[in-house]
């Protein structure tokens, strides 16, 4: 998600009366700092953004928030919830707005000009945040409210604890010297994170494989060829075909290309991102990040960065996270050996004369799928129309949560490809959903959700604005875009984050929507994936792009029968990344060569040589482009274990995945409450017990005992 300051409360009106008139006039003249106006409670003025405005906008926004914080910290009245905690929730609206614009430009419209500004801004914003988090007068007021929190409502108690805990974890109780060092570390890390991300974006942008002959296209389905032709034409290579250095372009090529030499070339280019020994190499940056994180953790009183990160997560300790990962790992790599044996048998039967290598895995896995399950995923793809699946997401959200999606055209967007829908429930406005589905230069790879404005209601209702972003390659005008089954699952997953935000019904923005612990935030989105394969969605929205006929039940049955296919690859690819992430951050202050560490630790884990980590260390943006998922990539496994336990409960209910009672319980205990209650408490209330890992193991086809 885009960078936003810790204290920002989107949509709230900042109390800026202490600002000089000149500053207020400057705010009025800069579209980035201006209060959002227009329909739906106000919307971002994306049509008025100029890159040159970002630096002055952030300068003014930081001054504005500083004035607000100083007013709270220096208040003469005794601290109470309203004049301290609620006042903090009301502060920061300007920097929140500017941060929204910066997040969109940095992730989807990045240019050399903007990247220069990013590098300059990152340490400034870090210093600004630290100035607040280390403000002694402010912390004393927060602590006073925290110590008297028994008189507050449960939600107010939760919010007060959240502020107190974050300030303590940021170093509010440290000596002045230690505070200064922590602040310096944070600023240096901010700069390193930006450099890491920009290096990765450069490798994804600069490395393109152009195909020029029919023989180089051998095996590629027509839709993959068409997308590659469009990508080439957009880059000035009309008449050629481009394989981009992104996952959405790499995966179909490795799955279908008959040219083993080109598969190896594409594979090596993709998995060497950030690891080419050139100006964009990330290994040195990673070494610095790891050292700084360890030093900061020690200053804050924790044995390692991993212990610091997990202290307020659902898992609580690295040991708990490692225990779950290592329970699954042996079954995953054992399944990989079985999968490789099947693939090797096919290669031998075809007299290919090869040993299965990582660039062969997807290609031969498809041959196994066809042989074992009589299923060719190319049979599925004609029914996977991007826009029809979007309609299916809307329909399922309507059935489960009562949402209605209405397209709107009165809202400015950052790029012509972006479309907007108003979300209603019971005829009442619930929020806005922006959809940005296509790849383009300057847009980072992958798929994600953003919140442009967080829901709140303590000073009157403020509705949420969310977006989903993807990187599908545009086809020819008027031709439906066909996506893979895996991409369809990803769409439903990311939409689940948006649905989590749209269901939010809390009072305070810092507790709103997806503002939950990292190992819990993926839980609602992983549940949402499981409405895709339901008969109700497939029969209505998995329609053939030429005939309009629904996907045949026989094909759906094949898909279901193959549901545990290639789980060895999928789980091992992911889990190896999660394990290396945790091991890197449990290594303390050791001198680490990232490439060597990755290689040696994977060998200790008996990592199969036929595949690699989903995110090799030099390109591990989840972990090194921010602190976000650092020592936290295990969160996907933790959350999926919760999600599959809930999905199992849905499937056992009378109404299946559309059971009204289960849907209401999920809404009331998870989707609507944000972080206003402890996630563990919400989960136990929903399920009547703690999580049962057996549903996860059954779903993957792994031994349950």
Radius of gyration: 25 Å
Query: Poorly predicted ranges (pLDDT <50, ≥5 residues)?
Result: 1-19
Helix content: 40-55%
Shape from CA axes? globular
CATH fold label of one domain: Neurolysin, domain 3
What is the count of DSSP helices, taking H or I runs of 4+ residues?
A: 28
CATH class of one domain: Mainly Alpha
User: Helix/strand/pairing class, anyone?
Assistant: alpha+beta
Question: Strand order, biggest sheet?
Answer: 3-4-5-7-6
Q: What portion of residues belong to β-strands?
A: 5-15%
Count of extended strands: 7
CATH architecture of one domain: Orthogonal Bundle
Biggest sheet layout: 5 strands, mixed
Note down, in words, how this protein is organized:
With 705 residues, the protein is α+β, with helices and mostly antiparallel strands. Among the domains are: 21-133 and 135-173, Orthogonal Bundle (Neurolysin, domain 3), CATH 1.10.1370.40; 207-271, no CATH class. Helix content is 54%, strand content 7%. It has a 5-stranded mixed sheet with strand order 3-4-5-7-6, sandwiched between helices. Strands 1-2 form a two-stranded antiparallel ribbon. A hairpin with a 2-residue loop joins β4 (419-425) and β5. The radius of gyration is 25 Å and the shape is globular. 47% of the residues are buried. The model is unreliable at 1-19 (pLDDT under 50). Residues 253-700 form the Peptidase M3A/M3B catalytic domain. InterPro entries: M3A_DCP, MetalloPept_cat_dom_sf, Neurolysin/TOP_dom2, Pept_M3A_M3B, Pept_M3A_M3B_dom, TAT_signal. This is Peptidyl-dipeptidase Dcp. Pfam families: Peptidase_M3.
